[in-house]
Amino acid sequence: MGFPRSRFDLGFDQATNCPSALAPMQDVTGLPFMRLIASRGEPDLFFTEFFRVHVNSRLSPEILSSIIENPTSRPVFAQIIGENIDDILRTVVDLKEYPIAGVDLNMGCPAPRVYKKNVGGGLLRDPKKINRILSEMRSHIEGNLTVKMRIGFEDDRNFDEILKSIKLNEVNLLSLHVRTVKGGYNSSPDYSYIERALHFLEGSCPVFVNGSIETAQQAVCLKNELSTQGVMIGRAAIRNPWVFRQIREVGEGIIPFSPKRKDLFEYCVELFSVLSHPGIDEKRVVSRIKKFLNYIGQSIDQDGEFLTEMRRSKTKAELFTVFEKYLIQGEKSQIEVLPEPLFKHGTAKNSISQGCNPVDCK
User: Fold this and answer.
1) Would you say the pTM of this structure is higher than 0.85?
2) Which residue in 26, 62, 133, 316 has the most C-beta neighbors within 10 A?
3) How far apart are CA 214 and CA 235, in angstroms?
4) Nearest-CA neighbor of 2 among 68, 63, 72?
């Protein structure tokens, strides 16, 4: 059954130096990817891809598998996306039949096809509706009600009002992506909004920082400098599936695991395997894995030759030839999965010290 924990118990070890979560990413963070991450160092919390909620919606069996067949002992939160209160409550009742740690409301998806339906990031334009939704969800959820959101739709005009609803409705965790919806993934993250949220919420709701956290060092430094409960990481975990293990190691003040090219080769091969299913055309699997490899390729060569050749591949054989060329036959033995911090000195807006020493981030 769902909601096995009392309110305020998110399910991670309170002694953890830097609690971490794998951000929900549609068409990415299903059961196969959870398994890959789990075998390389799992986060403290998992969130499912979003369950679409509308008048005719039913719980997706594929997404449910990441709950039912959870390959770890870590809590899994079921994320939903929708705006009709009756449909949301029906979905909440249905989810109670499964071993979830809570229900997470998506208020941050920046995809135009999503926000144009006034769901996901589109909800941020209507703070009064957000309050009604959270109020009804809170009255039907005995355990954890969590929210993942951005700082606003095209600006921050509704930010404080939405925070007020989060506090009023006793939300148990806020995962805050520090960009606007219209800012997508290319605008600069503004971490001052984390400080603003923490000040407004006054300890009533834990906050996880999310947005452009690329390395374990950055994660731990951000967590400590901003005094958040933890960090949520998405795209960087596709590129570097060891990042949660590294966060744990950096948080403990030890040198983090540094993968070799052969480790990345094994990851790519296993990724192809878990994305393959009987009856699925090989070319479809090749096409799907390219979405992952677009992130992974950033670690392999700065000239982009891996990405160019990977994108031209149409079969498994062609793709694996590319893997072997760059990951087995490559001259360098170590892969660059820990780039230098991308933040600058100075303001809380960029809030992390350049050149942060992992040992100093305990």
Assistant:
1) yes
2) 133
3) 8
4) 68
pLDDT in tens, 39-60: 999 999 999 999 999 999 999 9
CA-to-CA separations, 68 to 73, 210, 232, 244, in angstroms, rounded: 12, 26, 22, 22
**Token pair 């709701």 in the structure block, residue:** 205
CA distance 82 to 120: 7
Cβ atoms 289, 272 nearer than 8 A: yes
Beta strands 45-47; 51-52: pairing state = unpaired
Residues 188 and 323 sit within 8 Å (Cβ to Cβ) = no
Tell me how far CA of residue 146 lies from CA of 61, 206, 340, in angstroms.
Answer: 22, 10, 32
Report residue 221 as tokens. 């430094």
Cα separation, 157 vs 61, in Å, equals: 38
To which residue do tokens 């679409």 refer?
52
pLDDT tens sequence across 158-198: 999 999 999 999 999 999 999 999 999 989 999 999 999 99
3-state helix, strand, coil in the chain (%, to 5): 45, 15, 45
DSSP state of 232: E
Tokens representing 253 are: 């003040």
Helix residue ranges per DSSP H, the chain: 31-41, 61-68, 85-95, 112-115, 127-140, 159-168, 192-201, 216-226, 235-239, 243-251, 261-275, 282-296, 305-312, 316-323
